[in-house]
Amino acid sequence: MLRTLSQQLLSVVTGSYVSGTYSIVFVNCPNEQIARDIARAILDKKLTASVNILPKASSLYYWNGEIEEATEILLLIKTKTSKVHMLSSYIRLVHPFEIPEVFSLPMDQGDVHYLKWLEEGMAEE
């Protein structure tokens, strides 16, 4: 947490982007309605400023010792790295899967204007 705060402070002071300040969170959903419901809820809670809903990803995975196949909807959620834990906890509460797929990757670089827009979109009112 201290590392995240120091990254944010450096970013504000220098006006430059510090790698890892923002993350992309990946979440698979069983259908488009659940994906939209989760996307709207996390936008309302200011846990993200932007969610892409990618249709019909084919998934193969082990479940209870068997190989399963499913068609899922992928959410790409852009957020501050400092919000990933809260976002993941919320998704676990509302997601219908017993073990929802939730993982994140830090953003290495990004357009300064886009990143500023992300920050503003998650600002508490």
TrEMBL record:
GO MF annotations in UniProt: copper ion binding
InterPro entries reported for this sequence: Ion_tolerance_CutA, N-reg_PII-like_a/b, N-reg_PII/ATP_PRibTrfase_C
Coiled coil: none
GO biological process: response to metal ion
Lineage: superkingdom: Eukaryota
SUPFAM superfamilies for the chain: GlnB-like
Stated family: Belongs to the CutA family.
Subunit architecture: Homotrimer.
Protein's UniProt name: Protein CutA homolog isoform X2
Lineage: Eukaryota, Metazoa, Chordata, Craniata, Vertebrata
Gene: LOC118897432
